[in-house]
User: Fold these one by one.
Assistant:
Number 1:
Amino acid sequence: MRRAILDEIRRARDEKRAVALVTNLKSNQQYTKYLIDLKKNNSDIESYLEAAFRSDSGGVFAGEDGDNFVQIINPPLRLVLIGAVHIAQALASIGAVAGYDVTIIDPRQSFASDARFPNVQICTDWPDDALNALDLDHRTAIAVLSHDPKLDDPALSVALKSPCFYIGALGSKRTHAARVERLIEAGLSDDDISRIRGPIGLDIGAKTPAEIAVAIIAEVTRALRREGSP
Amino acid sequence: MNQERHDTLDQAAAWHDAGHGVALATVVKTWGSSPRPVGSQLAVNDRGDFEGSVSGGCIEGAVVLAALDVIRDGEARRLDFGVTNEQAWEVGLACGGKIEIYVERLE
């Protein structure tokens, strides 16, 4: 490995950019490929890389030029919660255990307090500003939990324009239908809106906040591991 | 796992900066139950110091020896370890898995 390639990978990691290192195991030639530079269905190796970025695991790709080893360097997984509500307390803990850097966004400082959320990154800006500042990527999941359209709707508008891999919104079927109507009125397309998972979480009969958090993290996990592209 | 890999790359760069010969060993394939996933890395310097992990401890010794050869001659190598391999048994990979490791010199 050339030192320049090692330094490029370390820089990409520090800047939280998704990069793959491809090594031809016969010729020992190496090159880097960034997720943002992949073209859809361009070639077999690019399709392989796309899937490898999504699943966060590389491996050996057999090409015409022999075996190529793909090493994936992805940014950390992030879970962003809108609304510092009761379910967010459970979800922040379970999300951290599942390997996510958790951020909670709620401009209501009495909700988003360090006492209620010890050891969690808290942001009290308005949700759309806060999300814009976070630079949402394909390794980010967003759960909208506040039940308040003043907070939830601006968050969803920003989330739906981002490449994040999961967007879920808490609320009953009726609440969700009303939310969809508001978002259509705000100018979002059906395709955009269909990315929202609502009611949020896998249907496992969850009742308590902790159980609902389990249902949500299970749905996030399935989106990450099973569904591939956002 | 990511964090460990990052420390490994930084350690490789630091040794290189200090003028050491450095090799990187990376798990490229696994079969069966192997203790570390594809992409796990070990950095080795010319004194035999190492950072990171490719197996959770059972074959690191053999990988470090191969890495010293790679540092000496600059030739990248592919190493196979498995329970069917006598050498692997000696170094203790008795966990029923097989792994392939790619070792390259940092130039």
Number 2:
Amino acid sequence: MTRAIQITRSIQMTRIIAITGGKGGTGKSTVATSLAFELSKEKRVLLVDADVDCPNDHLLLSIKREHLKTVRQRIPKFNPDRCTKCGACGKVCKTNAIMSIKGKNPIFMPDQCNGCGACKIICPSGAIEWDSKEIGRIYSGKKDNLDFLSGELKTNQPISEFIVNSLNEEIEKRKDGYDYIIIDTAAGTHCPVIAALENADYAFAVTEPTPLGAHDLEIILQLLARMNKKGGIILNRSDIGDKKIIESMAKKHSAGIIFEIPFSKEIIIQYSKGEPVNIPRISSIIK
Amino acid sequence: MKSIIVLSGKGGVGKSSIAASLAIAFSEDKRIVCADCDVDASNLSILFSLPTERYEEWTPLSTNQIASIDRDKCIRCGKCIATCYFKALRSEDNIPKLNEFGCEGCGACELICPAKAITLKDIDNAYIGYSRTGYGFKIASAQLLPGNSGSGKVVSEVRKKAKEIEPDAELMIIDAAAGIGCPVIASVTGNDYALLVTEPTPSGYEDMLRALDIVDHFRIKKGIIINKYDLNKDYSAKIELFAQEKKIPIIHKIPFDRAFVDAMTNMVPIIDHDKDFRKMFMDMKKKIEAEVIDSEK
Ligand code: SF4
Ligand code: SF4
Ligand code: SF4
Ligand code: SF4
């Protein structure tokens, strides 16, 4: 009996699906939460909110999050007894986290530091040790059958991809327990989005039929191509504008529009109340 | 030059549309300049029907460096791989190989390498430029190349550019990036006024609180605009109560209107859509003016 289950599990691989889309506000989180909630009615699903700058999926689904772990980053600690006030550390620090002039004790601004370690390497007198700072947290939660993870960056911290990396570690640990893992990425195409996309088998870009939508879509499609990701386009509010601009953008980058969601005040109202948004047939995108 | 930053935490609440229409309102009796600091998805100028292809200037920008490894000099000691805190280096046939996406250009590997096989080299990570809009004022913007980092520094360059192209402007209007990470911090610092755009949803509210954290960190005077306030009046009331407690003025409550969506679709700034919208933005402008400019006199 146990054996049979093991065999099915090894054949049926977990599929990791990222929902992304150039700019925020195109409906990325609405699609991710709706898809995850729909699928969780029949399958084992984990939803991961990797929009760590502004995690919102728990609000959309009214999930109460519980603190799972704290993410810390190393920062230098200066030993004034050893420091010869040479000023070298401030010169190599690319993030301007250290102000140091020859003859004065260095002034350190922990918020700006990304932990790169250049200062410690250059220090001639061994005056720098490691300390750490909290940069964010990972939370877990549940909505009916749907399991949920969410990462949150503390304000004023520079490196959000460390939080996403920590989420990726959690995904790696748990992934055999799920049929699908849905990752809701941050907006844009910078570091944390790339970190969230790294492990995904498929990536879907959510956009809308406006010139702005087309503009942002192009950038995300370029990124997906550069990262060799399979996937497609989900067109939100498909009836509000000119679909042709998205169609021609899709063609230009050999991508397909695989799903359309018409404009609906219903969706906006459900969204504003924190209820799972019901997008009919949304789970068809991965079947 | 005074500067106003329009931000919202997350995108999609109408921040850029509102920023664009306010810019037009202000430009009617002031010399202004716009800076689009959403360098991940720069599109404020598209709202003025001005794609970057038609910019007067649009040139590559380098604010970033990445490690470059000289294979001939490398003695395969592996120290750089162990040193890179961002895991951007891995061993391939014992020689370090760089993952460009991951490199922060911190230079730690260059410092540790005993064979001087690593140097940092500049890379073009964005485009930057400016143009004059059909409304008479100029706009500066930049677009980060997909997959590149360094958006915080690109944002600072856009703000510099905006100052350069219109040194005598009385007012700079800045459209911030989405989120609360490095690019937003770089957009918010040093402004005279912050306009927080929110909507009455749980996420709109939480995002506003996060954005507010940054604004307060830099001690910037601020006001709130609630967009689509009538979609969830209970939540709007919650935001208003919060604002009252914190003594933050509510600059305006904008009703949900399909015309907003249509204006976006047709790329017409909302202020030009009809008389009522125009009046609304002129009112907002007056209130903001009273907050930013007159309060100093
Ligand atoms: S660890 Fe890097 S970023 Fe932090 S202070 Fe040292 S050199 Fe600067
Ligand atoms: S490099 Fe070391 S010795 Fe020199 S100023 Fe920095 S901490 Fe002091
Ligand atoms: S420059 Fe810094 S981030 Fe880039 S490879 Fe070297 S150590 Fe890693
Ligand atoms: S530290 Fe220098 S010599 Fe050693 S592996 Fe790296 S590049 Fe090669």
